[in-house]
Amino acid sequence: MSPESTGQNKHNLTVYRRGFRTWRGNRPFWAGLFTMLGGAPIAYFPYADLQLGNMTLAMSTTAGAGSLIIGVLLITLGLTMWFHSIVRVFAGVAAILLALISIPVANIGGFVIGFLFALIGGALSISWAPGEPQPEEEAPHTAPLDKQQPESEYAEGALHGATVPPQQPGDHGTASGYGTSSGYDGGTHRAG
Predict the structure, then answer these.
(1) For every residue of 165-190, which 3-state class applies, written as one string?
(2) Domain boundaries of the chain, sorted by first residue
(3) Nearest of 145, 143, 144, 23 to residue 85 by alpha carbon
(4) Is residue 189's pLDDT more than 80?
(5) In this predicted model, what pLDDT tens digit does every residue of 22-52 receive, in sequence order?
(6) In the chain, which residue ranges form alpha helices assigned H by DSSP?
(7) Can you tell me the distance from the alpha carbon of 71 to that of 40, in angstroms, rounded to the nearest whole number?
(8) Residue spans with biased composition (Low complexity) (predicted)?
């Protein structure tokens, strides 16, 4: 392998990581993740079999179908928060309601683990708001160095407190006439 290949792979990893960070920042990522993590134990525990030596402990309940539906809906709401963040408030409220319903239906909300994750995910989804794009700051426009020096005796007098006669139209070399023949004063405004 050549030394360039390591750097190139490192660069690709950095690009993917920055892309993921940008994607994650434009949506309620943590809300969706917590909601999906809450749906997994709620859907899993009613169908899980725990082996303790030769003994099998089954958690199946009569409301196993309800637990599966609640868990799948929470996972779907978590994905909705990621990929359709415009409905984040609805998804958050629905996640909180499903988490509360899972307490009596799904083994005390997936043994409280799923309940807490879904509750936190729903609350995060409701409270998330998209960031405002920051305006680009423009560099201050300054006159070129040769234009910062006074161009006439009137300008030198103006710097030392003397009065300056008013500029006449077409007079481009006076104290206040930093403009050029094109009518611009060196800044972003037109000379008047």
Answers:
(1) CCCCCCCCCCCCCCCCCCCECCCCCE
(2) 19-127, 143-192
(3) 23
(4) no
(5) 888 889 999 999 999 999 998 888 777 777 7
(6) 3-25, 29-44, 64-83, 88-105, 107-111, 113-127, 145-148, 153-159
(7) 6
(8) 173-183
